[in-house]
Design a protein that fits this description.
It is a lipid-anchor. The chain has about 425 residues and is an alpha/beta fold. The chain folds into two domains: about 220 residues, 3-Layer(aba) Sandwich (D-Maltodextrin-Binding Protein, domain 2); about 190 residues, D-Maltodextrin-Binding Protein, domain 2. It is built from 18 helices and 16 strands. The strands form four sheets. Strands 4, 5, 6, 7, 10, 15 and 16 form a seven-stranded mixed sheet that branches. α2 runs antiparallel to α14. It is globular, with a radius of gyration of 23 Å.
């Protein structure tokens, strides 16, 4: 079968891509693919253009609403360019891997589907996806976090189209100038905080590791080794991780003297809407709620930590993946590349408001003219993609509990983190044995 030939070529590890200029390549110009020439030496490389297979037609799965509208727009343009019919069906990006596992072997699955980056490791292990045909193009033209997030074991699988992270919301009626450092922020917070009247300088969910990783990573902690691909190595209890726990206690003392169970997303959102919070840490999913509440707010990247480093917020990446069950791998890869071109991603931003990880679009007037979304995109440059290997699912619970304990008690931070790491390591051993 043709797909087996493609997979074998990819598995050689010598597939490479001609690097395109970020701003000049039209969406229909797929980068040429290089493969080893037959015959004399392993080092000889012959470039060939990827072209759709004869008789190819594609099924694409994407989310609903404006996401599907964008996918249908891309499908129409792709068909105009390549003559390949494309059908778009609504299958959510978090549901698609499970549906493909059932429908793929029966020949009913999508050729290209939208997926979340933190599912990539499981999708690869299950044999659901094939490698990105144009890895060097994405390494050259996309945010590092987007490429790392959609890669497994140093191999790029995804075609990233959106990146999401959290940043600093601030109430413009309460804040004259956005602080550049957390030290400055906490000085402002101290003067504003009043527990009796439910006024707080800064709020976020300290018991949610999704948010607290921003401090752990910024101070030099890390989840796994080798860019979060080696679960046998962890920095969840190293010196930087301990410093992040101590910093959280400083925030509690100065600005947020409540227990974690009293600091939920709903509580934070309500107080921010009522002008009782100066700053909150959250993502673009809260924009509409604060807009509807007529809060005069802005968004900025997270302030610098005491070590001069940017906080490393966790990021989520969405991308297209090519199904291992497709009968048309070249047409499918072309479609995924076409959909994630600069032109198509700018159109996606206009239609959905999702942030594109394409480097050329960081300076796009379309994005820069939106100061709120452009601030999230700026923070995304310092973000770390959530690890996508299966072992990450074991981390969330123990680390969440650890930060709850750090926040709510006076126990030694090192001891708390050591206990969490011990629990994580034991669970990983069970998973892998």
């Amino acid at each position: 079968m043709k797909i087996k030939r493609i997979i074998n070529v990819l598995a050689t590890g010598v597939l490479s891509v001609g690097i395109l200029a970020a701003c000049s390549a039209p969406p229909q110009s797929a980068p040429p693919v290089s493969s080893p020439a037959e015959g004399d030496g392993d080092n000889e490389v012959v470039e060939y253009e990827i072209t759709p297979e004869e008789g190819a037609e594609l099924l694409v799965w994407d989310n609903g609403d404006t996401h599907r509208e964008w996918a249908e727009y891309v499908a129409e343009k792709f068909t105009e360019e390549y003559g390949v019919p494309v059908t778009v069906e609504e299958v959510g990006h978090t549901d698609a891997p499970g549906v493909l596992q059932t429908d793929g072997p029966a020949g009913l699955g999508a050729d290209v589907f939208a997926g979340a980056h933190d599912h990539a490791g499981n999708m690869d292990a299950a044999g659901l996806i094939i490698e990105n045909f144009f890895p060097e193009y994405y390494e050259e033209n996309f945010m590092e976090a987007a490429v790392l997030g959609t890669s497994v074991d140093d191999t790029l699988y995804g075609y990233p189209y959106a990146i999401e992270t959290y940043a600093l919301y601030y109430n413009k009626d309460l804040v004259d100038e956005v602080p550049e450092t957390f030290e400055e922020l906490l000085k402002l917070s101290k003067d504003f905080t009043n527990v009796r009247t439910d006024h707080y300088g800064i709020m976020f969910e300290p018991g949610n590791y999704y948010f607290t990783h921003t401090f752990l990573g910024g101070y030099g902690g890390y989840v796994f080794g080798e860019d979060n691909t080696d679960p046998s190595v962890t920095g969840l209890n190293n010196e930087g991780a301990v410093r992040s726990g101590e910093f959280l206690r400083e925030i509690r003392e100065v600005s947020l003297p409540l227990n974690t169970e009293d600091i939920t997303g709903d509580v934070i959102g309500t107080l921010f809407n009522e002008n009782q919070v100066m700053f909150r840490i959250s993502g673009p999913w809260d924009i509409n709620a604060h807009t509807d509440a007529e809060v005069n707010f802005g968004v900025a990247p997270l302030p610098l930590l005491s070590n001069g480093e940017n906080p490393t917020s966790f990021s989520g990446v969405k991308g297209y993946f090519v199904s291992a069950y497709t009968e048309y791998p070249e047409a499918a890869a072309l479609y995924a590349q076409f959909a994630t071109s600069e032109e198509m991603l700018e159109k996606r931003f206009e239609m959905t408001g999702e942030l594109p990880p394409h480097l050329a679009l960081l300076e796009s007037d379309v994005i820069l003219d939106d100061p709120i979304l452009s601030a999230f995109l700026e923070q995304a440059q310092y973000a770390q993609p959530m690890p996508n290997i299966p072992e990450m699912q074991i981390v969330w619970g123990p680390m969440g509990d650890a930060f709850i304990s750090i926040w709510n008690t006076d126990r030694d931070v090192q001891d708390i983190l050591d206990s969490a790491v011990e629990q994580i390591s034991e669970s990983i051993d069970v998973l892998n044995n």
